[in-house]
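In this section we walk through a basic example: taking a raw amino acid sequence and producing a predicted 3D structure, encoded as discrete structure tokens. The instruction is simple. Fold the sequence below.
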Amino acid sequence: MERHYILFDTPERNLLYPFTYTRPIAACRVGILTIQEKWEHWLGTGVSHFTVPHLQEKFPLRRGDDVMMNVLINGHIMPDEQLVATIKALGPDEELYKDNHLVAKVVQGREVHLLPAASRKNYTGPVAGIFRPWDIFLQNDRAVREDFVLLTKGRTSAALPEGCQVSHPENVFLEPGAMVHCSILNAATGPIYIGRNALIMEGCAIRGPLALGEGAVLKMGTKVYGATTLGPYSIGGGEIKNSVFFGYSNKSHDGYVGDAVIGEWCNLGGNTTCSNVKNNAGVVKVWIEARQGTEPAGQKCGVMMGDYSRTGINTMLNTGTVVGVSCNIFGAGFPPAFLPSFSWGHQVGMTGYRLPEALRDAAAWMGFKGRPLEDADRRILEAVFKETNTQRP
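The resulting token sequence is shown next.
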């Protein structure tokens, strides 16, 4: 019987704010690929999303017909060979649990639901996933290595150009159209994946693991420490360490970002620098918006920045700062450790970003990369603006 695969969001999706304000959990990037793309590679077919109403238009749910089996898979979780085989072996009205958390279930027909199944099985293998924002950079080393194998197995890399100094070239893979100019690539510490039509300019110094997505750019003299991901059409400059840029975002100039997660369509102004370690080497506590309190994120945690947010030149962000969706940050000194979505300005005199101007500016920034702000994107931003209205001045 044909199977249709659906990645579902759980109620804990709000613990991944600000990133899940604008996407389902499985649309988050960890490693080279998003969680959705990982499942599609492993399953050999497309998947759809079962998520909250304001995201369902952009990330549609595709239902099977009356004789098809819908296989629902927890969007927090990343696939591996054992888990995929176990899910494929599930029959109608069976579900799979790990430590009392639903991993997958099979529902026959057009109805899609998460009601208890007739038969419950417990999974004994390991499970990796993202449950807090900092899990994205903590899981990135493992994810880049696994995705590298998944994407390059049985394939031959495009040729590395002369003029580069390369350690362990067998761990470096260039997709067609990728260009690397006069740079140092050290893949002894982890694989280096350079996507289609990506560009590494002269004088870059890279220690893997690194994932450079399609059309992404590292500007001249950039220093990159793994495990770092620059998603599609992102731009990196200055110094970057163990950070994930989902895609279409810019850190084009000097400044430091470490142990950080940057959403899509963000821009960090020149010399923006983000602390990732406290001066007393203590545990970094990060604001969890859905719980209106902090949680420990370990000794190293930089900025967590939602989609469409930007910083002015010379902005300083403190350890573990959380920036919501569509914030415009500028001014002297450190901003607060939590900036709600659609914040405008800085600590003194901070106001709300008016929605018409926020939509206008988002469209303008997307236009730099030749992409329109679609109606579905506008409606998502309108929904986030409404949901977060009480958090702003």
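Looking at the output, two observations stand out. The longest helix spans residues 355-368. Residues 3-129 form one domain. In the next section we compare this with other chains.
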